[in-house]
Specification:
This protein is of the alpha/beta class. The protein has 9 helices and 5 strands. The protein folds into 2 domains: 3-131, Rossmann fold, CATH 3.40.50.2300; 138-192, Arc Repressor Mutant, subunit A (Orthogonal Bundle). Helix content is 49%, strand content 14%. The chain has helices at 12-24, 36-46, 62-72, 87-96, 108-119, 138-148, 153-160, 164-177, 183-192, and strands at residues 3-8, 27-33, 50-54, 77-82, 100-103. A 5-stranded parallel sheet has the order 2-1-3-4-5, sandwiched between helices. It is elongated and about 60 Å long.
């Protein structure tokens, strides 16, 4: 079965390697992008059967890109690739509609076989996988969102009309669920999983 793919990664060397793997799997690379927003435009134009997307993209995260692709172009199967073998990431990838979550450290033959299976219509991430890790609650997301915007615990407590102790408890719960150990890791991971967004700055 002939299939075409768009490769999305911000490192040219990684895109080159993925091109070689896809070729070995019998997949033609019909387009490339280095960030999520460009990728959406390329995918709309090319209409590939497959998108191979790095999770940690600049700007729009790979998981958020996956959500948008699946919502707007459901015929495009998405394979997410990552350095991180964390249950929270796999669960969020499954919830986003990815067909597979593959690790960059896998043997090339394993990656090729997984891509072939996805092209044939298999889904390597199960619905059950999406339930393995509880997603952040709306309140936890709200707290992490405000932390990502640079707000202090005292500011967040005032904004949400909650005590600082309650805000700290929500933050601690979010960190536990995402398997992170610092505020910087919490913000970075939540952004890359598409759980929160940094407001875009527009010139004026």
């Amino acid at each position: 079965m002939h299939a075409r793919a768009v490769v999305v990664d911000d490192h040219p060397v990684v895109r080159e390697g993925l091109r070689a793997l896809l070729s070995e799997a019998g997949v033609e690379v019909a387009g490339e992008a280095a960030d999520g927003r460009t990728a959406l435009a390329v995918i709309r134009e090319v209409r590939p059967e497959l998108a191979v997307v790095d999770v940690a993209l600049p700007g729009l995260s790979g998981i958020e890109l996956c959500r948008r692709i699946r919502r707007r172009l459901p015929q495009v199967q998405v394979v997410l690739i990552s350095m991180f073998d964390e249950p929270a990431w796999r669960a969020e990838a499954a919830r986003a509609g990815a067909a597979a979550y593959l690790l960059k450290g896998m043997a090339p033959a394993e990656l090729v076989e997984a891509i072939r299976r996805v092209v044939k219509g298999e889904r390597l991430l199960s619905e059950e996988e999406a339930d393995k890790v509880l997603p952040l609650t709306p309140r936890e997301r709200e707290v992490v969102q405000l932390i990502a915007q640079g707000k202090k615990i005292s500011d967040i407590a005032r904004i949400l009309s909650r005590s600082p102790a309650t805000v700290r408890a929500h933050k601690a719960s979010a960190m536990r669920k995402l398997s992170v150990h610092s505020t910087a890791e919490l913000v970075r991971t939540a952004l890359e999983l598409g759980l929160v967004r940094v407001p875009e700055v527009t010139g004026g």
